[in-house]
Specification:
Length: 270
């Protein structure tokens, strides 16, 4: 990974920050972008990163300006990590249209847009790597996360289509599928026992993917095994086990809205 020039979206906090720290520690030159430009600048200063820029991944002009700024500072982009994402929780019927649209714009369109903008240069060079942060929720639908699950399932399908479409071009495509991760996205919720990852574990998985490209990786391994087991069992059995783990209520009835208020308020901002 040493010497790689890497851009990370949503890099100011949570998983994005952990990814930037891990890659920089491994010898990569890392630039981050975030819709919260002030937070991105603080993170860059704390981690010693050369570049932190404002980035709204759902805005083509903003994404173009971010990539241009990264290329100017780093001299090019070898890897794009599409990490930016949001995760509202609650019953779909109670979700506003504005929030539904924001989830799809950021979690899905942002991934497509970033890929479309950076891919031509990678193809002309014959090398590059696009790493998309998806989720195990994209393969295991979860009550209270309907739009989020839909967006992440779409990211998985898109990543696989890109991998097949650009086979033998020298450009790699990978998906990372974390389980529930200890960031503000799960504030006010209690992840079921054994289904919780640390941001550093996701970051380490991204670093390994960049060093040795693979199609996809799950984090944690135990959560990935459980998800695979769930696919092989009869649906009633899988749903019964999920209820026993409390998954059916974790993001609906059992949400602590007071503890989650700070994150929910940020989701509603333009």
């Amino acid at each position: 990974m040493r010497g790689k020039r890497i851009a990370v979206t949503g890099g100011a906090r949570g998983i994005g920050r952990a990814i930037a720290a891990e890659l920089a520690a491994g010898g990569a030159t890392v630039a981050i972008g975030d819709i919260d430009a002030a937070a991105a600048e603080r993170t860059a200063e704390e981690l010693g990163l050369p570049s932190a820029l404002a980035l709204d991944v759902a805005d083509p002009g903003s994404f173009r300006a971010f990539l241009a700024g990264v290329e100017k500072t780093l001299g090019g982009i070898d890897v794009l990590v599409n990490n930016a994402g949001i995760m509202p929780v609650g019953r779909f019927a109670e979700e506003t249209d504005k929030i539904t649209r924001r989830v799809l714009d950021i979690n899905l369109y942002g991934v497509l847009l970033g890929t479309k903008l950076v891919l031509p240069q990678m193809l002309s060079r014959g090398s590059g790597h696009i790493v998309n942060i998806a989720s195990l929720a994209g393969e295991n639908p979860t009550p209270g996360m309907a739009t989020y699950c839909a967006s992440k399932q779409a990211v998985l399908g898109f990543t696989e289509a890109m991998r097949l479409e650009h086979r033998a071009t020298g450009v790699h495509f990978s998906a990372v599928l974390p389980t529930f991760t200890r960031t503000e996205l799960i504030a006010g919720t209690r992840a079921p026992l054994g289904l919780l990852a640390e941001p550093q574990a996701v970051a380490a998985a991204v670093a390994r993917l960049i060093a040795r490209p693979r199609r996809r990786v799950t984090v944690t391994r135990a959560a990935g095994i459980l998800a695979a087991f769930n696919k092989l069992t009869p649906r009633p059995v899988g749903e019964y086990l999920a209820r026993k783990l409390g998954v059916h209520k974790a993001f609906t009835d059992d949400v602590d809205r007071v503890a989650r208020r700070g994150y929910d308020d940020r989701l509603r901002r333009p």
